[in-house]
Amino acid sequence: MNRVSVQGAALLGACAASTVTLNVAMQQFAGGPGAGDVGNESEEDDYPPSLLVANTNTQVLALMCAGGVSSADVLESISPEKWYIKPRSSQWWDIFLSQRENEQPGNWKRFFKVSRSTFEYICNLVRGDLETLKNPSNFSHITGREISVEKQVAIALRRISSGDPVSSVGKLFGAGNATVSKVTRKFIKAVVERARGHLKWPEAEQLEGVKTSFETLTGFPNCCGVVGLTHINLLFSPDESSLQWIDRMGKVSMVAQGIVDSNMRFLDVCIGWPGANDDAEVMRNSTFYRLSESGERLNGLGKLIAGNTIGEYILGSTGYPLLPWLITPYPQDFVNTRNEILTRTPLQSAFNGRHEAAMVVVDNAFACLKGMWRMLAKPSRNSDSSKLSSLVFACCLLHNIVLDRGEATGEELVLSGHHDQAYTPLFMEQYDDSDGWQYRDTLAECLASQNRL
After folding, report:
1. Residues 234 and 382: beta-carbon distance below 8 Å
2. What are phi and psi of 251, to 5 degrees?
3. Mean pLDDT across the stretch 207-216?
4. Which of 319, 301, 323, 297 is nearest to 310 (CA)?
5. Which of 294, 303, 304, 305 has a Cα-to-Cα distance from 220 of 20 to 30 A?
6. Higher-confidence residue: 134 or 421?
7. Residue 342 burial by CB count (10 A; 0-12/13-18/19+): exposed, middle or buried?
8. 397, 198 in Cβ contact below 8 A?
9. Mean pLDDT, to the nearest integer, of 34-58?
10. Taking Cα atoms as reference points, which of 126, 108, 127, 128 lies closest to residue 117?
11. What does R_g of the chain's alpha carbons equal in angstroms?
């Protein structure tokens, strides 16, 4: 914190000469933006007026003179050496919280993207982390200024779901910029730690349900999900000296890969790879790839169809490698083992149509993820790749919590347009001598035998 040390004549001079408004003076004292910086707020403004600002009578008096703060606005805590500014109004939140859910049933989803019951579930999930007292001067535990768990969760959910600037969110809750940022970071960390049970690969019995639902929706038998990825755009590169964060569209981005079931629920995620990595590279560097290649995943019972056994697999776009457990569409033209150029057959084209329809599930899941948690849809100012990865993971967990509690995401929450607008599809070079070709041909024949093509 910037400390003010004013004595004698200097103090009197400050009182006589000051014509700075309260808002600007307080921001300058706290290390925030000055008059020339309006509109360029920083989420890392660590000491706004809502936090502790001085620890001696002289310092508080100097602050009052410089900014015109009256004695009524400066309150003394239990410790006579610590002072803080009277908190902003949080009347909106107090009134909102006091309402019964049946009075305004749509308000909770409108403001926080979750129902009140799910909001309370999330509060209980992270309560232990948000109540923990780290140190005597912790921002949420200054005597008389405690921020309740409910208010912390509300601040964080509003920030993440709206993507609004910290200043706008702060005005709703009577909190400063730094308070909003710190509450949000603390909440994200707590969700990542406490909600992991909502995003994990299904056990055998659960996976049977996933496969049944997926076959009902898409017609693909024994399919365990669909894989895809999306780009999280950044304003600044985590590493200015490296081009690895510049993706194929020339944007600075981070890649998030997800495998979803027929209900758009995330079963597995791989987050944090620089945007220059393509679909295949992200997959090959994922834990899911390692487990699947070693036979530790997608190793359940096969399904017998028309005399052929179909093992477990997932579907992927043309940007992914064709593997026995990762089925991609047929290319337009391909070369066989005799170096003959072949064109897709009607059966293969029909298979691609079925495959394309199934891939919509993962596109909708990412569109819903960015639509509900709009902080992901806007270029991030956070150049810390670790913190950004945690944010994306937390949003995936919150996405699953909403689904697990039986709440429909709602078409109104889906991001308009494609979740990766302007990103062109990738095409992975494929060869017809791979085991993947045989599995795909067998799968296509099975679908045709069941009149699903």
Report:
1. yes
2. -100, 155
3. 96
4. 301
5. 294
6. 421
7. middle
8. yes
9. 35
10. 108
11. 27
Please answer whether residues 90 and 173 qualify as being in contact, where contact means their C-beta atoms are separated by less than 8 angstroms: yes
Crossing angle of helices 346-372/385-404, nearest 10°? 100
Q: In this structure, what DSSP letter does residue 384 have? A: -
| C-beta atoms surrounding 174 within 10 Å | 18
Quick one: average pLDDT of 3-27?
38
Most confident of the following: 78-87, 133-142, 373-382: 373-382
Distance CA 155, CA 148 (A): 11
Rounded Cα distance, 396 and 363, in Å: 14
Please say whether the beta carbons of 373 and 393 come within 8 A.
no
* Tokens standing for residue 394: 């937390």
**What residues contact residue 101 under an 8 Å CB cut-off, 6+ apart?**
108, 115, 116, 117
**Amino acid letter, residue 287:** T
Q: Is the pLDDT of residue 84 over 70?
A: no
Helix (H) or strand (E) holding 309, with range, is strand 308-310
Report the Cα 393 to chain-centroid distance in Å.
6
Q: Helix axis angle, 116-131 relative to 177-194, nearest 10°?
A: 100
Question: Residue 425's pLDDT band (boundaries 50, 70, 90)?
Answer: low
**Tokens 């001696």, residue?**
56
Please tell me whether residue 40 adopts helix, strand or coil conformation: coil
Residue 446's SS3 state is: helix
DSSP bridge pairs for 323: 326
CB 367 within 8 A of CB 411: no
Residue tagged 């026995």 (tokens): 324
Q: Which residues pair with 233 in a beta bridge?
A: 253
Q: What's the CA gap between 180 and 309, in Å, rounded?
A: 55
- Residue 431: CB atoms within 10 A of its CB come to 12
Mean pLDDT, range 291-306, rounded to an integer: 94
Helix ranges (DSSP H) in 163-203: 166-173, 177-194
Whole-angstrom distance, CA of residue 359 vs CA of residue 403? 19
Q: At residue 79, what are phi and psi to the nearest 5 degrees?
A: -80, 120
Q: Are 302 and 294 in contact (CB under 8 A)?
A: no
2 vs 26, 31, 89, 165, 375, CA distance in Å? 12, 7, 25, 24, 31
Within 8 A by CB and 6+ apart from 34, the residues are 24, 27, 28
Those residues whose C-beta lies under 8 Å from the C-beta of residue 422, and which sit 6 or more positions away, are 249
Supply the DSSP string of 310-349, one letter for each residue. Answer: E--EEE--TTSPPBTTEE-PPPSEEE-TT--EEE--HHHH
